[in-house]
Amino acid sequence: QLLAGQKKSAPFWTFEYYQTFFDVDTYQVLDRIKGSVFPVPGKNFVRLYIRSNPDLYGPFWICATLVFTIAVSGNLSNFFIHLGKPTYHYVPEFRKVSIAATTIYAYAWLVPLALWSFLMWRNTKVMNIVSYSFLEIVCVYGYSLFIYIPTAV
């Protein structure tokens, strides 16, 4: 029993490995959303909300909601533009969903990756300072995308 009291890490190809990234409750997600929309002066959002348990649940569903909102708003605006024209026949544009999904999810992963890479490069070049993990940056960035949901309507 050499590992008594320690958590065993599951292999990355199993669901158990990824389950830890989605282990949050509703109150944590709501607090993180509120914290991203209404920042508290003098408080570090990462230390206050994220550092103890960074997750991918909130960012994943915020991106999914944003994709859905953009697709619905785009289809509705197209419908209202042509409303009243006798020759117009409404056809839903499902390609907007795939374009929005590709754009939003790429944006939600590539920008944090670029920021994390820059911070790692800067950390090795300048000084050894406390830095943020990639998961923390993705989590913070994902929650910060929440503000775009009401604006997409």
From TrEMBL:
The chain crosses the membrane at residues 56-77, 97-119, 126-149. It is found in: Golgi apparatus membrane; Golgi apparatus, cis-Golgi network membrane. It comes from the Eukaryota. It is a multi-pass membrane protein. InterPro entries: Yip1_dom, Yip5/YIPF1/YIPF2. Its main location: Golgi. One of its GO terms (biological process) is vesicle-mediated transport. Signal peptide: none annotated. This is Protein YIPF. It comes from Pomatostomus ruficeps.
